[in-house]
């Protein structure tokens, strides 16, 4: 018999028996397409299940299992977990900062209801190890910004940030109260060649590569001196798998900052100009995104992650730009 969260409080001792395969099954959201390759290599293609409410885009190479999963539909999620004997769940569904401000009710439904009522309860009910990404956006104007430590005041002023603080606190509460194996990383702005910008405040740092290659021009919506923490996708994936595989005894906390580099639009443009020397930068500040960026960390203190589970980034700004152009091709104009 299964136990519905609204009827019974969770405790590890009352979890229904579950059959746990020797290798974890991991539903992964395709908004980070690169997620697939490291996890396939590590766990085997058939043990990693990709899910979304839409078919994968034609340009996303994908040949492993793919299923429809709607995080707003509790029964659908439960069926997936039971039928596939899921053991680990990576929960990426979320509306990002800028797009969340444009549609607060949807952001609330996806980021809070989907997370609170569904993912946490399913994970607790089925004894899953649960990964939920948080973000630099979980901090706000009253947080220390340079650097921002793991534990400090968090009063974000976006629905995205509020939903992420909520996720951090709920995950930790379920961990301490019911033994849920909740693990969470606060990501900087993530940059990758194979995913398009998706409604975030840090998106300019992805768009600049596409525009530099296509048109040789880039109009930035943030001021030239706006410093934000950023990370290349491979480091993000490495950190995510590392924290999921870390022995529980190594974790002195359940939500960690991770960091790799911090830069401003001006500094990024200088690096991009090494590949596209004629790049013309201009600035047309969007007040909404500028206000969000001005309330976020400038530098992220990730010393706890480095100490507890050996986090170490591989990509700095120069390496990031070289790698982006090696994928996108600076001479493909
Ligand atoms: C955003 O800009 O909203 C995201 C984030 C930093 O969480 N990329």
Structure description:
The protein is of the alpha/beta class and 333 residues long. The strands form four sheets. The protein has a four-stranded parallel beta sheet, sandwiched between helices. It has a three-stranded parallel beta sheet with strand order 1-2-3. Helix content is 38%, strand content 15%. The site of 2-amino-3-ketobutyric acid (AKB) has 10 residues, from loops.
Count of strand segments: 12
Radius of gyration: 20 Å
How much of the sequence lies in strands comes to 15-25%
Count of helical stretches: 11
User: Which segments are poorly predicted (pLDDT under 50) over 5 or more consecutive residues?
Assistant: 1-33
**Structural class computed from helices and strand pairing:** alpha/beta
Biggest sheet layout: 4 strands, parallel
Report the mean per-residue pLDDT as an integer.
Answer: 87
One letter per element, helices H and strands E, the order comes to: EHEEHEHHEHEEHEEHEEHEHHH
General form: globular
Q: What is the terminal-to-terminal distance?
A: 60 Å
Helix content: 25-40%
Q: Strands of the largest sheet, in order across it?
A: 4-5-6-10
Bound molecules: 2-amino-3-ketobutyric acid
